[in-house]
Amino acid sequence: MSADFKKMMEILRQQRPDLNHDSIRDMIDEKKRKIGAGYLTDQGALFLVAADLGVSFENVPKLSAEIKDLYIGAKDITLTARILNVYPIRKFLKKDSNVEIRNRTLTVYDQFSSIKVKLWDDQVDLPDEMNLQTGKLLRITKAYVKSGLDGKPIIHLSSNSTIDAIEQTENTIPSVEAKAITIDDVTEPQENVVIIGNLDSSPRISNFNNPRGESSRALQMELSNDSNTRTLRVVIWNIQEDHLPKVFTIGTKMRLVGTKIKMASPQFGNGDLEIHGDEGTLLEFREPQTEIEVMQLRLISIAKESTRGNTDCLALERNGNFVFLVIDNSLLTSQISSGTIMECVPSRVLGSFIVFSKEDSYLRIVEDDPSFPQLAQVESKIKDIRQSEKPVLVEAIVLQAPNTTDVNTKYGSVVSVADTLLGDDTGEIRLVGWRDQSSSVNNLKVGDRIKVIGAFASSGLEGKIELTLKPYSSVLKVN
Q: If you ran DSSP here, which 8-state letter would residue 96 be given?
């Protein structure tokens, strides 16, 4: 039993002489049962019991606390912890005065638990001024604890609070390396996790609106274990692209610092757990990262409509591999069309996803090269189409009049879906277009000879393979 716990018991019994030690002990045990086993120490539960009884511990000497002992309302705390994540500075305007407010968050941990530390205004510059990085030990003094939006305790600093970096002397707080787990160790939902795995898929960056209604971007990928027998989906929300490496290589070993393990999304998951991160999550690579080199690509499909200033495209590398391009519209000219060979330097290479931004990309058209793969060299016959992550190119005839329906999604929106049946001399297959691509299917007529470029084969109705158009897919009529 710690010295401060004993002192607190003495103060409580002095203010409530009607209670004996055993009755207080019963209240502590009951509070721990109600809150949940493993969430409170005896000392933490005693704070809650005292609050119920109207007893103040203002005269208890302020000793160094552990995170598991902290509770909402605690004041004048002293804490020793190690940094897990340093978040970027966030700025916003107060509604009543239009005054700009800045805040920043640190995630810190000790040997038992973790907690967020909120910095405000002038305090937000402390991490940069003090070179506070993941893994450093801190001592926080004269802080207090408030409730966050999720109801969990968050440490706040007052004007009298201090943050000091301390030397790496003997300490029971594990290092970030010691906290790391592997894909095989992921067995249940948990927070503030350090996880190691191998990049198992081409990452992609997508747009979404965050809870504040602001446009943001998310990085999605998959990590596998060393034996490649288990793969988990990863989503890093509100990603800061300037913090990402220029090149992601499939198979490279990665460490993600500061993630959350969650149950898989019913829409995207495979029934396993998922790894989620945010703008504070640190991505580290265990191998030296390669530099972006000059590339040659043949464009084979360009999206009809651009999204958020970019156009989705499909291209071929010289070795015949497919790559997916996101090109800033300002880089596209009327000379760039399907079949064009480009010499280019992209902004970022995310496996088979390649990004071209106007700030740091270069591309120019070069003369056609007969040795470069042609469209006909990657076409398939319907009988050979299998479910795969590779796009499909097929020439076929429209066998049925397209059917278009409106579908209610789980998010409450209504989207258009069109489908038809295609055939060649080897078989038949259904073609499906969702949302904007529904018009590509709906405009077809029975007997049209078409080329479908960049569709994906997946299991459809009754388990039959069908082709689904993607934003970069094209449907061309053949004379």
A: T
pTM greater than 0.90: no
Q: Which of 264, 205, 254, 257 is nearest to 233 (CA)?
A: 264
In order of 159, 454, 455, 467, 475, the CA distances from 432 in angstroms are 61, 13, 9, 6, 11
- Complete edge-to-edge strand list for the sheet that includes strand 353-356: 247-248, 348-350, 353-356, 322-328, 310-317, 295-302, 341-345, 362-366
Domains of the chain: 1-59 (no CATH), 62-176 (2.40.50.140), 180-285 (2.40.50.140), 295-366 (2.40.50.140), 379-477 (2.40.50.140)
89 closest CA partner among 249, 349, 280, 230: 280
* Under 8 Å between Cβ of 69 and 44: yes
Residue in the block written with tokens 């016959």: 381
Residue 6, class by beta-carbon neighbours within 10 Å (0-12 exposed, 13-18 middle, 19+ buried)?
exposed
CB of 183 closer than 8 Å to CB of 195: yes
pLDDT per position as a tens digit, 22-79: 999 999 988 888 876 566 778 788 888 888 888 876 655 454 678 988 888 888 889 9
pLDDT digits (tens, 9 = 90+) for 93-110: 877 777 888 999 999 999
Phi-psi group of 131: left, alpha or beta (phi > 0 → left; psi -120 to 50 → alpha; rest → beta): left
Pairing between β-strand 310-317 and β-strand 204-209 as defined by DSSP bridges: unpaired
C-alpha closest to that of 312 among 430, 181, 473: 473
Q: Cβ distance 9 to 24 under 8 Å?
A: yes
Measured distance CA(222)–CA(220) in Å, rounded: 7
Q: Which of 238, 234, 236, 243 is nearest to 214 (CA)?
A: 238
Polymer length of the chain: 479
If we measure between CA atoms, which residue out of 434, 443, 437, 439 comes closest to residue 415? Answer: 434
Burial zone of 478 (CB within 10 Å; 0-12 exposed, 13-18 middle, 19+ buried): exposed
> Do the Cβ atoms of 8 and 46 come closer than 8 Å?
yes
Nearest CA to 438 out of 398, 403, 393, 464 is that of 403
Report how far residue 449's alpha carbon sits from residue 286's, in angstroms, rounded to the nearest whole number: 50
- Please determine, for residue 183, whether its predicted confidence score (pLDDT) is greater than 60: yes
Cβ pair 9, 47 in contact under 8 A: no
